[in-house]
Amino acid sequence: MGVRAFVVGFVFGLLSLATAADDWASLTKRLHAPLASGEFSQVKHIGGLPLPLQSSGIFVVENGQLRWLTLLPFESELRISVTEVAQWEQDSKVWAADAQAQPMVATLAKLMLALVAGDAGALAQLFQLTQFEVIDEKCWALTLRPLDSVLAAHLTEVQARGCEYLAQLSFGEAGGDTTLIQLSPQS
């Protein structure tokens, strides 16, 4: 590689870092309203199944924990914290994955907590911001790609949209499955 090619590559690298930093700063300004509670609807497309899986319910963020309460098609609850992800049914824990023993659990917990909290700093530790679009004065859209190899083995990208708060999430999974989640604040 010649000196000229190195200099040109170096300059473009610095410009892309500056642009990414500006995009993260802009996102931080727009994510000023974390979602403390609300409703969700979720559609999961799984390869080989003719119809998507659909669910809906409510979520609550309290004491550093995301409680994901599915009401339809049947009731169940996930409790997501930085230490574990656990499934609860009728006030009993029926399944749990420890974050220390399973790094993917810790990473997914950080991701979900950062997304609903509007914590762009935490997202920047996990993802490269590959696209950031300002739709109008309040609304935005973004695409994230995992930085961590453990996360990249499961997720290819995360797309998010919102205005004053996060309104839509789309997860592209490494196996080709997709999940779309619509969020709305509790009224």
UniProtKB/TrEMBL annotation:
Superkingdom assignment: Bacteria
Protein name per UniProt: Outer membrane lipoprotein carrier protein LolA
Pfam families assigned: LolA
Keywords: Protein transport, Signal, Transport
SUPFAM superfamilies: Prokaryotic lipoproteins and lipoprotein localization factors (SSF89392)
Organism, scientific name: Simiduia aestuariiviva
Signal peptide range in chain numbering: 1-20
Keyword 4Fe-4S: no
Quaternary data: Monomer.
GO biological process: protein transport
